[in-house]
Amino acid sequence: MPIGGGGGCSGGGGDGQPWAVRRWVAVLIQRASMWWSLSSSFPPVSVLFLLHFLLLILFAHIAETRNSSIPAFFVFGDSTVDSGNNNYIKTISKSNFPPYGKDFPNHIPTGRFTNGRLVTDFLASDVGIKDYIPPYLDPTLSLDDLETGGLLKLGARKIAFVGLPPIGCVPAVITLNSDNALINRGCIERLSSVARDYNRLLQSKLTAMQTHGANIIYVDIYTSVEEMIKKPQQFGFEEVNCGCCGSGIIEASILCNPYSLVCSDDSKYVFWDSVHPTEAAYYKVFKDLRSIVDKFSKD
């Protein structure tokens, strides 16, 4: 299984939903995870970075919650949006140990593959749903903690698909594809080109998927991440081609552990480990998406 491949689904928000919906979604997560882990039609690295950063946010437009027209979030994706589901599945790809979570409130390693919060945490907090998205598979969650809404047939009317980032700029990808990974750590352009092609095809497909009564949009994060890579000083970053944990060129999950050396200031790094961004990078992406989400929630 790719690193964090069991990211699954995280939910948080408003009113309770019938137990049948939770069970239905759990089955969906299980089947998706099995497909990812058993698929042999793609090389493991290709699967990992095809899924990397890919997330699906379902905005269930059912009832008013607090001061927001969005009552809850449903987040589908991989380890870049996993709030701790990996804690509850059989996999060695976990992050519920230090130094993960060092900048999370109370310095708790929650299972998020970063030093702090995720883009989805910032989004949920910004619209007044929850301060942090809880992992859907957490057995201690109450019905009030679970997501309301669901897929189109279950009432979701606002659906945002987020495209791929420049995957050729991920440190682990550079390490695996550079002719000299210790010296030549520039982005692998041919792989970032694949991400751009994928994003164009996704936008075309989403246009064809538009249905009466549903608002389906494409959200670009490629540009946001590329800006950090190409103009790091403009956003307060200094290191863009290696992570903060360990050497930063190969470590992720169990290879980034309590015995790993950690950089002195992770806010200067775009990547926390060799695959996943830092909280600072996630926050930059959140700020770039904020106006889109605000407009989306009001349409």
Short synopsis of the structure:
By secondary structure, the protein is α/β, with parallel strands linked by helices.
- Give start-end ranges of low-pLDDT stretches: 1-8, 13-67
Mean pLDDT: 79
Q: How much helix is in the residues?
A: 25-40%
Instruction: Give the total of beta strands.
Output: 7
Principal-axes shape call: globular
- In order across it, which strands form the biggest sheet? 1-3-2-4-5
- Largest sheet report: 5 strands, mixed
Radius of gyration: 18 Å
Count of all domains? 1
What is the structural class?
alpha/beta
Number of continuous helical runs: 7
Strand coverage percent: 5-15%
What's the end-to-end separation, in Å? 39 Å
Tell me the series of helices and strands, N- to C-terminal.
EHHEEHEHHEHEEH
Keywords:
disordered N terminus; about 30% helix; alpha/beta; about 300 residues; two-stranded parallel sheet; 7 strands; about 10% strand; 7 helices; 5-stranded mixed β-sheet
